[in-house]
Amino acid sequence: MYQINPITNELIELRAKRFSELGFKEREHLQEWEPRRGRTQNIKI
């Protein structure tokens, strides 16, 4: 995954991180994520 710098038009490669590194705990957050995931997958862009 990359981040785009709009000023310089450069791609910055992002390092993959685990949920735990970001302070998320899958077991605690999974019930909240799943219903949202279903809604966002049906959005047409």
What do these coordinates show?
The protein is α+β, with helices and mostly antiparallel strands and 45 residues long. It has a domain of 30 residues. The chain is elongated, with a radius of gyration of 15 Å. The chain starts with a strand and ends with a helix. The model has no long low-confidence stretch (mean pLDDT 78).
Strand percentage: 15-25%
> What's the overall geometry?
elongated
Distance between the termini: 20 Å
Structural class call reads alpha+beta
Q: Rg, please?
A: 15 Å
Percentage of residues in helical conformation? 25-40%
Main sheet attributes: strand count, strand direction, barrel closure: 2 strands, antiparallel
**Poorly predicted runs:** none
| Sequence of strands across the biggest β-sheet | 1-2
Mean pLDDT across the residues is 78
Question: What is the number of beta strands?
Answer: 2
Q: How are helices and strands ordered from N to C?
A: EEH
Continuous helix count = 1
